[in-house]
Design brief:
The protein has 65 residues and is mainly alpha-helical. Helix 1 packs across helix 2 and helix 2 packs across helix 3. It is 48% helix and 11% strand. It contains 3 helices and 2 strands, in the order H-H-H-E-E. The protein is globular.
Length: 65
């Protein structure tokens, strides 16, 4: 989860897919599902703000720290 947090800090706004792409390295793969779960945890804790809401099956939510 440290790589996801680092990616969040570098990007101004992001989706779970963006985080997955930026946090994945050769040895460790971060799936978009894992990134989405981490975003939901941080959203509930008050660390993230929703910039664009998701439409299930059409588009992902966009978040900002």
């Amino acid at each position: 989860m440290r790589r996801i947090w680092t990616a969040m800090r570098k990007l101004k706004t992001f989706s779970p897919t963006d985080l997955s792409a930026h946090a994945t390295v050769d040895a460790t793969e971060i799936t978009p599902i894992a990134a989405a779960a981490y975003c939901q945890s941080l959203l509930w804790a008050g660390y993230l703000v929703v910039k664009r809401t998701a439409i299930p099956g059409k588009r992902e939510a966009i978040y900002r720290l």
